[in-house]
Write the structure tokens for this entry.
Amino acid sequence: MKLLFKNIKGLVGVREDKKLLLKGDEMKSLSVIEDAFLLTENEEILEYGKMDDLLIDDWNELQIIDVDGRFILPGFIDSHTHVVWAGNRESEFVDRINGLSYEEIANRGGGILNSAMKLSNTSEDELYKNAKTRIEELMSLGTVALEIKSGYGLSIEGELKMLRVIKRLKETLPLPIKATFLGAHAFPMKFRDDQDAYIDLIINEMLPAIVKEGLADYIDAFLETGYFSVAQTERVMEAGNKYGLRAKIHVNQFTAIGGVKAAVDNDALSVDHLEEMNNDDFEALKNSKTMPVVLPNCSFFLSIPYAPARRMIDEGLPVALASDYNPGSTPSGNMQQVVATACIKMKLNPEEAINAATLNAAYAIELSESHGSITKGKKASFFVTKKIDSYSFIPYAFGSDHIDSVIVKGSVVRKGEILDA
Ligand code: NIG
Ligand code: FE
């Protein structure tokens, strides 16, 4: 099956250089072919170019889609989500409005433990159904691949339950999904006074059971004051590495305690959050293979500082953007909004923000060989905008949905005006 998208006002994010990530100044380069066509075959991008250069031998084999002056962008990759959860936490949201902090709520047994309690009372089927509905909404908003973490199970059965749900989502949804084991998300109440026993449980019982069923691609921990220490997280990362699970670590959300260096030293694929960064953290990231992933909508929702993404880019680092979609700190997974917040609050240029939400984000879940740009042979996973004057309109007119249609691996997952005709 071949699809020809013609009369594209701007084909955005075209890359032929096969770069797997962009650093520093490179992040400003977002090449656009104006008045373009894009040809896909089955799941992949076959060809693209200027309309003037369009040469087709056999028009009979094609479904032709007239994009009629709209833009096409590579779909968003969301490399950090907690999209499988039970219930919601609006009451904590109201508590925060009335003056409590995220930490104070957690210390009262709210927060992650509240979600863990709700999850233990929810069936796998129910969890699957709700997560599927959320992901379908994300796809309609332009997300074409994502990562999902466990971490609301906090027991062997609970973590296996979450990861089995993620496996089912992988098998039934059209977009690629990576699964991350986050047993080290919070200490369950009964381990409050014997934290190392919980680390032992993660390493000696949860991890082998998860690996045996092939349920995880990566391993994560919430490395933070009051949660998992550097030493505890190192044990978790080392254990994961033994099973071939690279680390993606929640770190520096509230405090900088040396976690970034510890993650880099353990060959972490990414370090995520990074709202609080000191000079040592910057140094640790330089010349590493670890992607800094920033989550601006978490900062927005919790009213905490924004990660210094501008400084990261100015100092030559790469940056990826992700949603952190979860019921506590970021109950929104809209990547159009993430790009907008990054531009408005972190001072990224639209080009940098789009690269951060596509190619660099794909790197953070090892998908940048097949996703993240408009490149021959990469997956045909992209979106067509509504009629707008420039791609900068997407972050500028924040809060609106600027997408007409979404294609995931060559299949239409959101059918807008261009496909209605
Ligand atoms: O990335 N910071 C740790 N974990 C999540 C929030 C989890 C929750 O509050 O349920 C985050 O923000
Ligand atoms: Fe998170």
Remarks:
- The domain at 2-76+372-420 is CATH 2.30.40.10 (Urease, subunit C; domain 1).
- The pocket of N-(iminomethyl)-L-glutamic acid (ligand 1) is lined by residues 111-112, 115, 222, 250, 253, 298, 324, 326-329 (CB under 6 Å).
- The first strand starts at residue 2 and ends at 12.
